[in-house]
């Protein structure tokens, strides 16, 4: 049985966030080899792993739903510019709302329901106690834009990419839990521009190949990939905008607290073609797990030790691990003897 | 990446020009996917001898996807598909189409849209115009054709565009002075062309002469289905011989024969399925190998690539 959403835990201040045994078991562990290198690790986003796997449905709703939605509300309250949309992306916003409402109500009928009579739609989200009658396509019948409205009800960050001249442009999105990048900064940039800071991958041709794949994604054939980094404390909002709040936390890691303080942060990224607007939807569904919880699985701890130990220096620096990387390797070494 | 095919029924066939027929398609036991202006579908036709696959633009307003309408011009140098559509397909027949793909979407931030259409090249623009009108954005269409063969949809376009429609019938000696048209366009105009190669080149040439950047000039390029001839793959280690049919990928054929090849994207970008080649003339279709690796011919990506020779040997 899928774990039901738990009462709200925090991703800031007192950091009450925790994973249940079930959440640990289904965690998307990203290291498939002893050495981690960038690659075009894209596959078709079709179900795998059976019931309760994070790959069972288009969007994975898990025990952290209420916590993540509460965290998102705080971030948007502080800074509404975490949700942006250029004028020409209005239709893509409706595409997004439709995709989410249809897939959530189909995959989780116990939590969400959607009734449609031509343009007249009725949406219910029992987890957040939301009921809404609205006219599809008419923004004045929703309390806010469709992207903003629906983005607050789905786990994960979202970017909507406009596709033109065989390239993708970051022209809309709701990004409240980024791994150190900013939507406001990247807005309007092309695929290779916003990937500018990433080391090693450009010259390896990874972005050229990835872009060719992405621009050819047809309607109804979503793709996915995993990406990862490390985060100090279970902090969702590691954005450049809030750097003063979290940057210094990297200096607080010690050999004594590394297992509790350092979290593996995995992004399940989903790419899906939006039918009405031809935009590409990019979902970043973030999962956090402490090193301590990883160590409950000896295979993971051993594998992660090897991946961390052999991580190229440019990746260590780019991912912001320079100050505490050695503490992570030392801690994990005990599981690889 | 193979998108699921959709069964559609032909509900209406009408002549819209001497050599162009319009087909209306509805989903068989399902609704059709929504689509965006400029989209096309690949239609699969099961002929007597072979399967034809042709790309056709969707003509209808994208707001209404209850049916798809496509227009097919009977091609002179017969490539089979259009002849089949004109002569063999009847109302009530069932065809299969891919979900809509869009490689020719308008640039929504353009200040003005300037269109050059030649003959059946009007088709991708039929879905642009209703949306431009709704958005209230400037649009000007220059439509060139031979009235004895093509020139479909003039009345509809006239109603929609009124004074911004310009018609040139070559069979009545009417010509479009492309350079004159391009000369007097406001800043922020984007230009779209669909038609014969000559028209595309003509517009591009005029733009170059006028100093207009080619980045505002867009022309339709259908992702032509790449047919493949059948070939055989010999597995060096076991001597097993696997037949790859016209419709299968090499990867699918190897899998069907019980060989497990690691793979991820199945689209020639991830590099997972890479196989060592012992011998054979290869038709590389992937985006993973570099040009020099391709010409060396020591590796092949069986998820998309094929053979030019009748038989290749894989060292797996
Ligand atoms: C349209 C979809 C995508 C979006 C919106 C996106 C966005 C981003 C962003 C904003 C970053 C952070 C860059 C920074 O440091 O400022 C990033 C990093 C990265 N992206 Fe993408 N990306 C997309 C697709 C892909 C794909 C398909 C690949 C496949 C290889 C890829 C590979 C990477 C890699 C390797 C990094 C570095 C991550 C790390 O080491 O933590 N991206 N991406
Ligand atoms: S499976 Fe990715 S290149 Fe063949």
From TrEMBL, chain A:
InterPro entries for this protein: HODM_asu-like (IPR021848)
Protein name: DUF3445 domain-containing protein
Native source organism of the sequence: Marinomonas vulgaris
From TrEMBL, chain B:
SUPFAM superfamilies: 2Fe-2S ferredoxin-like (SSF54292), Ferredoxin reductase-like, C-terminal NADP-linked domain (SSF52343), Riboflavin synthase domain-like (SSF63380)
Cofactor: FMN
Domain 2Fe-2S ferredoxin-type, residue spans: 231-316
Isomerase as UniProt keyword: no
Presence of the UniProt keyword Cell membrane in the record: no
Family annotation (InterPro entries): 2Fe-2S_ferredoxin-like_sf, 2Fe-2S_ferredoxin-type, 2Fe2S_fd_BS, Benzoxazolinone_Detox_Enz, Beta-grasp_dom_sf, DmmA-like_N, FAD-bd_FR_type, FNR_nucleotide-bd
FAD-binding FR-type domain mapped to chain residues: 3-107
Sorted UniProt keywords: 2Fe-2S, Flavoprotein, FMN, Iron, Iron-sulfur, Metal-binding, Oxidoreductase
PANTHER family from the UniProt entry: PROTEIN YIIM
Name of the protein described by the UniProt record: Oxidoreductase
Origin organism lineage: Bacteria, Pseudomonadati, Pseudomonadota, Gammaproteobacteria, Oceanospirillales
